[in-house]
């Protein structure tokens, strides 16, 4: 019983009832236009004095409503009303103007349906409550039964007086049931008629995929840039603290490397975060590349005590900018992993060579024991794999003969002038 009462008179049912009455209110101007149109054909000057003529005016007005639904704001307004009053999820509705012929047809069908069903429910809502009130009060008010209202004599019979309140209550329940049922049907049909078209869904999916791609790219940039900087600065500061009294020159170099690392990282961080600030212009710090900062990256890594040997058999100046940038991040992440897992005094071998039409990057360091675990796990190798996959290359990483080896092969677009074949 409580469930039935909630379905008929609950908040959602009441809001949908309001939505139907709004549809009836919107239908009234079209009914008036319809009455003007049919009046000359019927010869009647009082169209609203006849129920058939009222229904005829209603029927003539609905096609006019379908035509006016082509107004661009119809679908956004109807979708907003359906969302708030009918309880339909926003992602199942389209809030932009209907543009294609199919969308306009679906919008016209919905608008006609809303006004048609709403007009019927609104009419019932105006007529049934007073009639039901008369039936409910009929046994109590003798003035209604003395013939002055022109009621049939059958109303004077005892069984009619006994059943009148029941009939009144049933008519109110029937009105609520009709309103709840029609509201539920409109809520079910709304996504089909006001929902996004397949083209809209495809465009939304593409926009979502593009947004995810941007977020993933920014996450990789933040991880590689900030993660490497924090690792390098931590090791540099630790090494400087241990030799603070015995090797002042090393301390000065370490502090200079810390200053340089943090300054560059702040610039990169500002550039990345500028993309995330809605309405702000991106930062102006350029993304690092092999051509611009490979020597600086190696120098700052060595300043923390790591013994880094580098072999570069490729000209970074001739590489495409995208390849040079992604290769820089791969080398940076390889060095970061070596420092994190093998310690600050680790010997790291970096090789960057061109082999035919590919650029090969290899980072190796000895494995002295199991790699220490870090809270939350690491995402560096996953980021490298994402970068390599986007460039159409291959990557392998893992221990081999007590050596951790990262090997990446990236295709170079077109020949590199001046570089070895």
UniProtKB/TrEMBL annotation:
<keyword id="KW-0812">Transmembrane</keyword>
<dbReference type="Pfam" id="PF07730">
    <property type="entry name" value="HisKA_3"/>
</dbReference>
<protein>
    <recommendedName>
        <fullName>histidine kinase</fullName>
        <ecNumber>2.7.13.3</ecNumber>
    </recommendedName>
</protein>
<dbReference type="InterPro" id="IPR036890">
    <property type="entry name" value="HATPase_C_sf"/>
</dbReference>
<feature type="domain" description="Histidine kinase/HSP90-like ATPase">
    <location>
        <begin position="326"/>
        <end position="411"/>
    </location>
</feature>
<keyword id="KW-0547">Nucleotide-binding</keyword>
<dbReference type="Pfam" id="PF02518">
    <property type="entry name" value="HATPase_c"/>
</dbReference>
<keyword id="KW-0902">Two-component regulatory system</keyword>
<keyword id="KW-0472">Membrane</keyword>
<feature type="domain" description="Signal transduction histidine kinase subgroup 3 dimerisation and phosphoacceptor">
    <location>
        <begin position="215"/>
        <end position="280"/>
    </location>
</feature>
<keyword id="KW-0067">ATP-binding</keyword>
<feature type="transmembrane region" description="Helical">
    <location>
        <begin position="53"/>
        <end position="73"/>
    </location>
</feature>
<keyword id="KW-0418">Kinase</keyword>
<keyword id="KW-0597">Phosphoprotein</keyword>
<keyword id="KW-1133">Transmembrane helix</keyword>
<keyword id="KW-0808">Transferase</keyword>
<feature type="transmembrane region" description="Helical">
    <location>
        <begin position="20"/>
        <end position="41"/>
    </location>
</feature>
<dbReference type="InterPro" id="IPR050482">
    <property type="entry name" value="Sensor_HK_TwoCompSys"/>
</dbReference>
<dbReference type="InterPro" id="IPR003594">
    <property type="entry name" value="HATPase_dom"/>
</dbReference>
<feature type="transmembrane region" description="Helical">
    <location>
        <begin position="109"/>
        <end position="138"/>
    </location>
</feature>
<dbReference type="GO" id="GO:0016301">
    <property type="term" value="F:kinase activity"/>
</dbReference>
<dbReference type="InterPro" id="IPR011712">
    <property type="entry name" value="Sig_transdc_His_kin_sub3_dim/P"/>
</dbReference>
